[in-house]
Amino acid sequence: MDVLQRRSAKQMAKITLDEFVLYTKESSS
Question: What is the pTM assigned to this prediction?
Answer without folding.
Answer: 0.49
